[in-house]
Each structure stands twice: as C-alpha cells, then as structure tokens.
C-alpha cells in the first residue's frame, strides 16, 4: 500500500513539473532530470533550515523522496511567498514545495497533490 501511495505522489509531482511547458520543453526537462523547486525555507515544519543551516521539513523531505525514487535531481530555489507563484508562472520553478493551500483560483490554474499518507484508508 505504501508503494502505491508513493507511486501516486511521484506521478502527481511529475505531472506538476511538466505543467504548462510545450512538448519541446517537456523533452528538455525529461533529458535534464533536474526539477527546479520553489520554496521559502522559512515555514517550519514544512520548509525551513535546521540548526546546521540545512534545508529540511515535511515538504522538502517528500519531494526529495519522490525525486530519489524517480532518479531526478532537485534544485531548491528559496524565494519569498509573495513571488512564489510568479516564479512558477514564469518558469523559474517547476514545482512549489511550501505547504500551499488550495483555493478555487489556484485549483483552476495549477495541479495539486491532494492525497497524503494521513488521508489514505487501509
């Protein structure tokens, strides 16, 4: 069951990473295998720096686990919350890992991961 959940999460992240790119851009992303991740790095416990200055947190750990399973590299780009979606729209980020709330406007424009471990019924 955990394997199925992991595959579903990975699939959603990969879909989000390929979001609004053209076919040519999708092929370039596939070949590079590097996902640009937008995050604040200041919102514990989801995205923050530990006592050693290392970026960590729930959202960071999840996206790292998905990337490892899929053989992808991650490049974390820390930015302010105010510019998070602008960076995604401009193509500076492929995904956001920063505890983003879902609202109707965002749901129309972006793909969201709606399934987490705590929501799975066994």
Architecture overview:
This is Cysteine ABC transporter, substrate-binding protein. Residues 35-114 form the Solute-binding protein family 3/N-terminal domain. It holds the Pfam family SBP_bac_3. By secondary structure, the chain is α/β, with parallel strands linked by helices. It has helices at 2-18, 23-32, 58-70, 84-90, 104-109; strands at 34-39, 48-49, 55-56, 73-78, 95-96. The protein has one domain (2-119): Periplasmic binding protein-like II (D-Maltodextrin-Binding Protein, domain 2), CATH 3.40.190.10. The protein has five helices and five strands; from the N terminus they run ααβββαβαβα. Strands 4-1-5 form a three-stranded parallel sheet. Strand 2 and strand 3 form a beta hairpin. The chain is globular. Mean pLDDT is 79; it is low at 4-8.
How would you briefly describe this protein structure?
It contains 5 helices and 5 strands.
């Amino acid at each position: 069951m955990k394997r199925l959940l992991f595959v579903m999460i990975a699939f959603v992240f990969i879909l989000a990473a390929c979001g609004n790119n053209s076919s040519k851009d999708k092929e370039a992303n596939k070949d590079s295998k590097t996902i640009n991740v937008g995050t604040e790095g200041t919102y514990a416990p989801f995205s923050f720096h530990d006592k050693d200055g290392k970026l960590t947190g729930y959202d960071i750990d999840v996206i790292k686990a998905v990337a490892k399973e899929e053989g992808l590299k991650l490049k974390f780009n820390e930015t302010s919350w105010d510019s998070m979606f602008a960076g995604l729209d401009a193509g500076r980020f492929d995904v956001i890992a920063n505890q983003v709330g879902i609202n109707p406007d965002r749901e129309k424009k972006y793909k969201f991961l709606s399934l987490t471990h705590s929501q799975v019924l066994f």
